Amino acid sequence: MIPTGLTSATIGHATPSDAVRVRDTTVISAVCQFLYDEAALLDEWRLDEWLSLFHPDAVYLIPTPEDLSNDPATTLHLVHDSMNTLAGRVDRLKSKHAHAESPRSRTRRHITNVRVWQSPDGLETRSVFQVTRVRGGVVDRYVGVYEHLLVSTTDSDVPWLIKRRRVALDHSIESAGGQLSVLL
Amino acid sequence: MTPSTDSRNTSAKEWVVEDVAAGTFRIDRTTLIDEAVFEREMASVFGRCWLYVGHESEIPKPGDFKARDVGNRPLIFWHGHDGAKRVLYNSCRHRGALVCRIPEGNARGMSCFYHAWTYNSTGALNGVPGDEGYGEHFDRAAMGLLSPPKVDNYRGFYFVCFDPGAVGLKTYLAGAADYIDLVADQADDLEVVPGAHEYSMDANWKLFVENSLDGYHLLPLHKTYFTYLEEREGNTLDRDDTTEALDLGNGHAVICVHGPWARPVARWTPALGEHNRPQVEAKYQELVERYGSERAQMIGLTDRNLLVFPNLIINDIMGVVIRTITPTAAGHTKIHQWSLATAGEDPDLRARRLDSYIAFQGPAGLATPDDLEACEACQAGLRTAPDVTWSDISRGMHREHAGQPSMASDELQMRAFWRRWQSLLD
Ligand code: FES
Ligand SMILES: [Fe+2]
């Protein structure tokens, strides 16, 4: 592969504005466990259980790495899913006709540097991730920041539902796996 | 695969073999895996054809620039402060460093970071530190950033050609110009939406050109996408659709279909939202008044995948996608694509246009990863080329040679590509 040698001048901001940092280690620890559990569902391909972690009005976003700050209504994204389309994406991935994932990739999500804020909308979390994806003997890595907006829920087995999940990648897909057929 | 001396000298006629009487059109698979063939086509195809750089809307203001890699050459597409839009080689005249090292921005000038030679937005060299180190023969005026031998645009689409002896752009485009017109006539003003999809595959670039024009694979390969359209958007594919494939000359080709998805210009479906129905239908009426109903149907209701030889695809389907397909080796290809949209369109329509594009296409779409998987599976299978020599591209030949119209699920469009490829290589 011939690198272009170009580096975007933009760096994604991982710190939410308009929010108060949460220092209570009980809350932080519970958030960490929530994120790890979520990651395990994806790594184990328990996709329906993963979907059940989302609020009905949730959005799932992956911007392109050059335009980390922008809006899916005005900027080309890699993924902009509502619950309707995210469920469609999951249906596809469960099908044996999702050829790019048949046979399936093995993924491992490494989540670290977890920070939590209280915002008027819920708990804002930021964490650093590295997702390794193994398929056909090749290991690809995706690196970036997860942004989760978690809202409290009472009628569920989990303490929160995900209202917004944004995956800010540090690199283009060109240099990581070529395509993005897995969920990040 | 390492270069074989043999494929440096083989006539491409031995690789692209058409036998009309026998109804066969075969491609020697060496052409897809051999590094010597890759080197030949970088010189004979990418070194001689007009190649797409960018759209005028991407650099609207003086100083705006985009760095682009075209034909394996780093270029700067730059709107000069004199008002001219230029394409310049992104390589310092001193010792070669990239002058521009970021993908985009706005600049009055650029300073090379190595020894600080400075160029203004017209490419002229206007600053050399330590002038006294150069004698009177140092001709500063001749040391600006160079331009490729040919740069031109057709209806806002900018192209370069690295062959000074090549025909002009309009002549080169041949019948493809009419199909660029169908895109350009969608609106008074079109703009590339911010953001680009950049992805890649471990497969030969020509496999993705074929894939981009392949109506035959839609149903078998993209079953999950059509299921998604049906279940999530309520749109069903018409299996009796009248489709068309055309050879547009000079290796260019197009397929035309009528898909189940919404077209912002101008086919309303529920995916665009009930509240947007009046404006989409009004847009269609406007096309009818302006161009007559036949042309309005072609602009507004027909989905097209256009190949501008060798590596530009313009998909005018659920929105307009500009795609370039660039080889970096016989078995590796980079793909870049952008969304072209009506400038100033309703924000909600813009948002839905983008959503329906990325559901289908792009590296995380519901269809493109399967296309890449198919090309990579071909590339892996092609390692049998020493024993399993030929690929078959004969579908629809009986129709073609009986003078009957070809369909999108035929392979006329690929034959047009390969015939041109063969003639350039020899
Ligand atoms: S290489 Fe650019 S100034 Fe020396
Ligand atoms: Fe496809």
Automatic annotation (TrEMBL), chain A:
Gene3D superfamilies: 3.10.450.50
Pfam family, one: Ring_hydroxyl_B
A GO MF label: dioxygenase activity
Domain of life per record: Bacteria
Keyword set, alphabetical order: Dioxygenase, Oxidoreductase
Keyword Secreted carried by entry: no
UniProt family annotation: Belongs to the bacterial ring-hydroxylating dioxygenase beta subunit family.
Protein name as catalogued: Aromatic-ring-hydroxylating dioxygenase subunit beta
Automatic annotation (TrEMBL), chain B:
InterPro entries xref list: ARHD_Rieske_2Fe_2S (IPR015881), Rieske_2Fe-2S (IPR017941), Rieske_2Fe-2S_sf (IPR036922), Ring_hydroxy_dOase_asu_C_dom (IPR015879), Rng_hydr_dOase-A (IPR001663)
PROSITE patterns: RIESKE, RING_HYDROXYL_ALPHA
Entry keywords, A to Z: 2Fe-2S, Dioxygenase, Iron, Iron-sulfur, Metal-binding, NAD, Oxidoreductase
Source superkingdom: Bacteria
Keyword Membrane belongs to the record: no
NAD keyword on record: yes
Pfam families (UniProt xref): Rieske, Ring_hydroxyl_A
Domain Rieske: 51-160
UniProt family annotation: Belongs to the bacterial ring-hydroxylating dioxygenase alpha subunit family.
Protein name: Rieske 2Fe-2S domain-containing protein
Source organism: Streptomyces spinosisporus
